[in-house]
Amino acid sequence: MTTKISFIVICFALVLSSCLKPQEFPLEPIIEFDSFSVMRDSAVLTISFTDGDGDIGYKESDTTGNFAPDKLYHHNLFLEYYEKDDALGWVRGKDLSGNDISFLYRVPYLTPNGNNTALKGKIEVTLEPSYFNPLSSQSDTVMYKITLVDRSLTESNKVESTVITR
Questions:
Q1: Which of 12, 66, 118, 125 has its CA at 20 to 30 Å from residue 74's CA atom?
Q2: What is the pLDDT of residues 89-120, one digit of tens each?
């Protein structure tokens, strides 16, 4: 009897899953800020994403053309660092050379197999050795603006992290 019920449940699940319409998302990546967790000096930032054509991430060999090390799109996840200034509001954090501080990442290749290439998932990055500008003694309040780029060089929406107080 148990075998018969299991067989019926499995058949029902197969029939039901074959009737479900595959998820559809816009072709451009869409991201949402999920969380920011501090761990001593480093931190973990998590975003969720969808991408309708499933072309998120780079292979390790993607290092020529637009993906060359000296090109903007060598990286595909960009975290712009901002500090709270009591007089000016949010301003880009600067390094010793006066350049804007950004955290740059290469999300690995993520393309599903099969006919439905839509992707939905989470990306988690560790900001280390520090998630804040150790040169800045003026601000103890920071945030990040985040953008994801797919292999077609289509930029996602830009989202902001929560306000982070160190």
A1: 118
A2: 999 999 889 999 999 999 999 877 777 888 99
